[in-house]
Each structure stands twice: as structure tokens, then as C-alpha cells.
Design brief:
mainly alpha, 500 residues, carboxypeptidase activity (chains A, B), Neurolysin, domain 3, 3-stranded mixed sheet, homodimer
Chain lengths: 500, 500
Amino acid sequence: MTQHETWVALRAHWQELADLGGIGALLGWDQSTHLPGAAGSGRARQQALLAGVRHGRATDAGYGRLLDQAGALDLGPVEARMLAVARREFERATRLPAAFVRASSQHAGESYAAWVEARPANDWARMVPLLERTLDLSLEGASFFPEFAGPMDYFIDRSDEGMTAAQVDAVFAELRAALVPLVDAVAAAPAPRTDFLAREYPIPTQLRLGEEIGALYGYDFTRGRQDLTAHPFMTRLGARDVRITTRAQLADPTDALYSTLHEVGHALYEQGVASELLDTPLGGGVSAGVHESQSRLWENIVGRSRAFWAGQFGRFRDAFPEQLNDVTEEEMFRAVNVVRRSLIRTDADELTYNLHVITRYELERQLLGGSLAVSDLADAWHAAYEANLGLRAPSHVDGVLQDVHWFSGGIGGVFQGYTLGNVLSAQFYASASAANPGLDAEFARGEFGRLHGWLSEHVYAPGRTFTPNELVERATGQGMTAAPYLAYLRGKYADLYGLS
Amino acid sequence: MTQHETWVALRAHWQELADLGGIGALLGWDQSTHLPGAAGSGRARQQALLAGVRHGRATDAGYGRLLDQAGALDLGPVEARMLAVARREFERATRLPAAFVRASSQHAGESYAAWVEARPANDWARMVPLLERTLDLSLEGASFFPEFAGPMDYFIDRSDEGMTAAQVDAVFAELRAALVPLVDAVAAAPAPRTDFLAREYPIPTQLRLGEEIGALYGYDFTRGRQDLTAHPFMTRLGARDVRITTRAQLADPTDALYSTLHEVGHALYEQGVASELLDTPLGGGVSAGVHESQSRLWENIVGRSRAFWAGQFGRFRDAFPEQLNDVTEEEMFRAVNVVRRSLIRTDADELTYNLHVITRYELERQLLGGSLAVSDLADAWHAAYEANLGLRAPSHVDGVLQDVHWFSGGIGGVFQGYTLGNVLSAQFYASASAANPGLDAEFARGEFGRLHGWLSEHVYAPGRTFTPNELVERATGQGMTAAPYLAYLRGKYADLYGLS
């Protein structure tokens, strides 16, 4: 093969991997949105089959030889990074023995099926032996990568390349030290009125408003769409097919709105990757943390700001004149930022959410480190919630059994990205607003283009051209730091709750 | 391998082929129902990739050896038929050279893309060279199967196994001889009133009524669903996932209703295949003609009957009280059976529809036989329409360019199934009603279970266990015959139009 032919063959292989990934995403999207009730097991089999086909192509020996040959090519920096990312993924995928991958996948399926029954039955005892096996498999998986300092470093690196457990430990310790007293102070202050949010808001109108604002944010509906699901998500089905889903409650219009704006944030990132990177190893978001930074930035920092409501309250009052006839713009702004200690992570407000995540991260650290046994996890959960949030779950349903993550995948690296995203959201926003004075005034006019433009240039367009740490440094001038996030939270909640 | 292991491996391979087919069906379903506008070319690439993966598995040499080994197994009659069908499909798929398959597929894509532009522009000249190449490729494809008497026999056999061009010629000649004077007589009689069908009928209500009646027919929505598309279709995405689509017009409620009932008929067939046959070579409808017989039976013979409207008119009047306040049940029955000579096949009524199909079939015969050149096809189209329907299209848009079939696939065997379906629908129904006296009285009560039961037992459950000809003989006691269909049409339209 000539150099040119090698590169053409690599691009074609990457295109195929991207297309197989898109087909897999369609199988999942349809399962969550439209699949007939009786078709579940058939769909699971189709997904496993397609995943097997994709895994076969991703670990194909001929592909490996192509990657080796390409090492001798004279590449520009972007192409060199494409190759480096592809080699890293190939190496990761081929180092795990096939028997281990099969055993893990089969166990994950069995564990998930058991959890679906055990959770409503509050049957923690049933899950203990399954979770013990999950922990064993997680540790075994990490053992194939001895170059990392420990299992947690391996798992964090899988979703947030280049990040270490020590870095996360440090950031989370700083956050917890600041957040626990801040939540205490807020809890002691008078709560805003939220009664009007419990009125009835017809769901089709809720969905329409979310889509209108998503379009204002910059979500391109010719390359996407929104559907209803039980759990909202964003998924890329193709280079020009980035879909979101939302959920809605009749008696809480903020659920659909902020679910939509959260997923729009993820989608803006995926839709904003430079077109020349699409369907290559660089054609997507760079890490779990940076991805979540965009969902949280558009959901919280923008969507729960006073300036946002200055621009959008009229839209809501026009759509829901009776429901909002005794409500002011300021009351709406305060209501969507109400802080309440609660037991469920996915229902948590902006401020307490991180304490849920930090709790899980710390428990994962102890499980993987051997200082906590699975059989003691439920008690450790209660103790951690009492320490971090001052609450104790009345049952395991709202305690250790609440999240699907440990019961469907593995232990390690599955939660920290949520809070890293919060931290990075404020860091990116601080840089964006420093470079673009007056963003609030634009938001108040319902304009978001200048912010979208800055983020597109500095975060979205590069895709995976830089590592997450490089991207953060290039965009903000420094490595990841919690300072902007803590300043944002302190300023916002001091204002809202009249703290000194 | 032991005998048992060989059979287990074959079943697993068939399961995989079925699952890949289901994934391909999902890609197509989503393309027609939900795909964002900008994602079309990416989806086409995904479909081609998946088709290639499936073709690879369907023609895999290891699979061929398994089929050979299975020839020595001691099989029961159903398993022997599974193997025979699988061997036939394997042989068909492997006999076409890969280069020919690629060239055909690429040409089909180019031809379709050109047709999408040429049709609205009335640009027949642009399509002539493309259709000439289509004809060459069709003839070349047939040449790989010299065991057939001619190209048309090969193409008919692909969709209606065991049927010959001579058989179709004879049936169609009999039909045309009867239909042309029958249409003449109807055209000379006074037309029923149809003014009320042009009132405005809100589409969500139309769709609800169609789904209610589909459920009465026996369509199982836990194993299916209905969505809106430009062109209605039925598709099997999995053993328990058989979906339909419909279209709707505000000012014609019969379009959505009969599109739904047509696709429900196809779906009842697919949903009715015996569960032990699912995901095997026998797990689906046996031929294009038998499939269409079920869509037409439920759409026309049942759905346009006086008894049907005796049971359903109240449902419509309740749903559309203002639109139907001056309409009687009898007027509704007559309006949905109005006969009008028209230029467009897909808009044609039950009676004239076959003349559209026969026209195309005869033109295909002449093209494949060499007695008609593609460059003369447009003139031949006009001449045939004048002879068969007494009409001349004012442009090629409503003439030779109207159907996608020749411009996206090939020439030969693509139309006759529609009219074979009509013929068989009456033949099956005559046997069903002879075995079940009093079906009309049940229809008038909104009950369709006894008919559904008979069809399930005699047509649906066997799947592809018998050849189409065997199935027809077993179910009706004789080979395919046009007599019941002509008797049905003559009786119905003599009544409706007061013919002597």
C-alpha cells in the first residue's frame, strides 16, 4: 500500500466503526422511545449481536496492521492525534481477553435483571453476591492495565483521559468542605415559594417551550429531534443525527424544561464538533467531565440564571396564563433554584447534587481499595448520607439500590464525571464571560449566540483533538480548578438566600 | 459435530440472520418515520453497511458447509422444509457474482436519485439511459438462473415461489377481459355521493379510529405500533415487533383508515406465524401474492363491506358528529366503494386498481422479452392506458414516471403480486366464509375473531412451511383461480351500481 492508500483504508475503517456505533445507538434510542412492550428480549439480542460485530471490527487484526503501518506515515498534528486515539482504543479493546469480556457482559445482564426486581422489593440481600462478583470483575478488568497507579485511576482514565484519582480526591475534598456548610446555611434560611410549580401544565405545551428554547440555544433540529422517555438522554446516531429525549410531569414544568436544556447542552457539544473530524476517532466529545460541563452549563449556569428568566418568563406566562397569573419573574427564578436536601441524586438541586456524587465516589474508592466490603456497603451508604447530607434513607430503595450504575456495568469511574462537569462548567463559563462581556444582557433578550460561538470555538469544534486537560488549559488558561465553581455557587446562593 | 450440534449451530445462524434483518428493518423504519432531515446520506451508508454484513453472513462459506452437513440429518418434515428454504436462499445469494451485486446496487442508488429529481421535472429523457441500464442489469441477473423458462419466470419466482409467467399471463388475461367491461358499466351508472368525505376530519381522531379497528381485527399492539409516514408500510423488526405505518389527509378520512387496515392485514399475517417458526427460514410470509392477499382481504373484502360499516359507522359518527350529521350508514358504505377511472395506481379504487397493475406487468413482459425498447416505453404506456382505462396522462409525471419500482430496483416481477393478492384474497375469503357461516353478522357486531382464527390456522401459522401453491391448495382445496374474485367483484358492484 502507498501512504495514501493506508490513510484512505484507515478512514474507511473509522467510518465503518462510526456507522456501526450509530446503528447501535439507534437500537438503544428506539428501545427507550418506541419499542413495543413484548419486543424487549429480541432487542437485547440484536444489541448484543451488533455490539459483537462492532467489537470484531474494532479489534480486527487487519485493522491492527493498518494502525501499525500508519505509524510510519508523515502526518499533520490532527491526523497524528487521530491515529494516537485510534491506537489507544485498539490497544484497550484488544488487551481485555475475549473470555473476560463475555463473562463481564453476561454478568452485567444478569445483575441488571436482578436489580430491576430487587430494587422495588427493597431486596438488598439479593444484590450482595451479585455486586461482589461485579467488584471482582471490575478489579480483574483493571488488572489488565497495570500501568495505572490503581484501579480507580484506570476507570477514571477510561472516561476522563489523563485525570487521576488523586486529582479527583483533591477537588472533591475542596468541594465537600465548602458545600456542606453552604447547604447548612441555605437550609437555615427561608425557602422561596414554589407552590405554583405544582399546578397543572399541559405536557405538549411544556415540550414545545423546551424545543423553542433549545433552538434558541442553537440546537439544530434538522440534525436532531426530541422524544419522550422515562430517563432523558442524548445520543449520536450519525454525524448529522444527534437526538435528545426528555421526560415531563404534568405538575412540575421544570422537570421537562431542565431535562431538555441539559440534553441540549450535550447535543450542542456533539453537533458542534468540526465537520472534518466527524466519523473519525476525534469526532465526538472528549471526556465524560467535559461533556457534562456542557449539559450543566446550559441547564444551570445559563438556564437557571436571572437573565435567562428575564428573557423567557414572558414565553411561559403567555403559554400558561392561568397557572402563572399570580407569579412574578423573580419568583420563577427563585423557584427553579430552590435547594432541598433529598435522598435521590437524580432529583437533587444544583447545590446538593455534588454531595450525592461525592458520596458515591468515596464509596467506590473504598470498595476498590479493599477497605469496604460489599456486605457492609448499605451501612456505609447510610453513614455517608448522614455525614454529607444529614439524611438517612428509610429503605434501600432510596439508598444503595437507587442508581442503576453499579448494578448494570461495573464499580469505578462511573460517577465522578457528573461533578467534574459541574466544576468545569463554571470554569468554562468564567472564561467565556470574561471574553464576552455583557452575556447576561443578551440572555435577557433571548439571545445565546455569542456564548454558543465561544464554546463552539474553544470546546466543541476540537472534538477529541486535545486531551481533556489540554482542552481545559487552552480554553481557560489553567488546569481544572474548583475556584470558579465555588465562587459561582457562593455568589448565586448568597444572593438567593440572603446569606452574608 | 454431532447431529444435534449441527442443528443447534444452524438455528443460531438463522437467529443471527433474522436479527440482522430486524436491525436493517429498524434502519428503514426510522428513516421513514423519524430521521432528521440532514441525516439521509449517513443513514443510507449505515443501511448499505448493515446489508453488507448480513449478506456476508448469509453467504458465508462456513454456513454453506453447515447446510451441506445438515443434508445428512434425520429431520422431521418442518425441519426438512426449513433446511430446503435455507439452502435455496443460500444458493440464490451465492450464485450472483459479488461484482454484479455491487454494480446493481450502485446503479439502483444512482437511478433512484435521478428519478427523485426527474419525476417532478417531467424529465423522461433523463431516465431513458438509466432505465436501459436497469433493463440490462435485470436481464444479466436473470441470466445467472438459466433453469427458468425466461427472465420473467425467474423474477416472479423470487417473490412468488413456484408461480410461472404463463400462469400469471392466463389469470391476468381472464381478469382484464372481465374488468374492462365491468368498469365501463360502472362508469355509465350514476355515482354515489362522496361530498362529505371532503370535510375536515382532525387527524389524531382518524388515527385513533384506525387503531381501534386494527385492534378489533386482532393486531396486537404489544407486539407492534403505528406511526405516520408519507407511504404506508408494514415491517418486521423482530419476532415480536411487527410495526405498521399509515398516512392521513385532513379532508379524506378514508385514506388513513384504509391505509391502516391494509397494513394491519400484512401485520396480522406476520404476527400470526407460529412461534416455533419465528427466527427460522420459515418465520414469515410465504410470498408477495399471499401477503398482499391478507392486506387486501382486511382492507377491501372486510373493510369495505356493508357489514363492516354496520358495525363501525356509529364509531365514526360519534367521533365526527358534525362532519357526518347528514350521512347515513349506507351512504358511507357506498362512498368508500366509489369507482373512478384515474391515472395513479396508488390512488385507484378496488375495481380499476388491477388494470393499473396488469398494464405494468404487460409492459415488463415486453421489455424483458425484447419486443419493447425502453425508448418507446413512454408511448407504450400511453397506448396501454388508453386501451385498459380509456385515459391518457397529460404528462410523464402521472404516466411512466409515477412509480418508484423500475427506477429503484429492477424490471420484472415487481408488480404482479398486487393483483395476485387481490385474486387470492377472494379465494381465501370464499373458503373462510364457507367454513364459517354468518361472518357478516359478526362483522356487523364489530367482531372479527372467527375470520382471524380461520386465517391464522390456514394461512398465517404455517409461515413458509408450504410453498405458496401448496398453501393455497391446502387452504382452499384448489390451485389459484380468479373465479371467486370475479364473482366477488361482479356481485358487489352490481349491487352498488344497480347493474343487471
